[in-house]
Amino acid sequence: MAKLTLYHASPSRSSIVRWMLEEVGEPYDIHLLRLMEGDQSKPDYLAINPMGKVPALKHGDVVITEAAAICTYLADAFPRANLCVPIGDPRRGVYLKWLFFGPGCVEPAIADRAFPRAEPPRRSALGYGDFDTVMDVLARAATKGPYLMGEQFTAADVVIGSTLRWGMMFNLLPKRKEFVDYVDRLQRRPALQRVTALDQELAAA
């Protein structure tokens, strides 16, 4: 049995972690949850993740939740995959910024745009500021190299790239050339191609 077990549902945010696992290259098991049948709210899964959400990853006796946290953990736990910027490297600060920027800025900006409040909040009250600024910051980053950290593909690309793919797929983000070109580069990665095919099989079943 693999030491890594992903609690997974397709389609969901857990596909982010499945892509990361394929990039890591370590064997892993899938524990499939049927969200439409409420598996995520049953006591056995709530013991794994009390939030009742996917993904969750079990590595030995350790359980990690939150997609960006799991990707960060995996990149550090399996350094030979070269998916992290190690402690001591001055580039690690920027790398961590992007890992936090995905769930901390991009996702809330998308959600607020998709489900607007009756009264718009003050910009200063929002951690991400405003939607257009978030998009501009992302667009500039997407053109600095093939990946966010230049020539090195990292866990940050998995997190940010997944959000951009999803956002454009459902027309929640503008299809700016910078985003389209960046996502096209990511979609050439064999690990992402494998996950896309595997999740399509799950969805069809």
Description:
The protein contains eight helices and four strands; from the N terminus they run E-H-E-H-E-E-H-H-H-H-H-H. It has 205 residues and is an alpha+beta fold. It has two domains: 4-82, 3-Layer(aba) Sandwich (Glutaredoxin); 92-191, Glutathione S-transferase Yfyf (Class Pi), Chain A, domain 2, CATH 1.20.1050.10. A hairpin with a 2-residue loop joins strand 3 (56-59) and strand 4. Helix 1 crosses helix 8 and helix 4 (92-114) packs parallel to helix 6 (155-169). It starts with a strand and ends with a helix. The mean pLDDT is 95.
Helix content: 40-55%
Which architecture of the largest domain would the CATH scheme give at its second level?
Up-down Bundle
CATH fold topology of the largest domain: Glutathione S-transferase Yfyf (Class Pi), Chain A, domain 2
**What is the typical, i.e. mean, pLDDT?**
95
Strand residue content: 5-15%
Cross-sheet strand order for the largest sheet: 2-1-3-4
Query: What is the succession of H and E elements?
Result: EHEHEEHHHHHH
Structural category:
alpha+beta
Number of helices: 8
CATH class of the largest domain: Mainly Alpha
Number of strands: 4
As for the number of domains, it is: 2
Major sheet characteristics: 4 strands, mixed
Rg measurement, Å:
17 Å
Shape: globular
State the end-to-end CA separation. Answer: 24 Å
Q: Which parts are unreliable, with pLDDT below 50 for 5 consecutive residues or more?
A: none
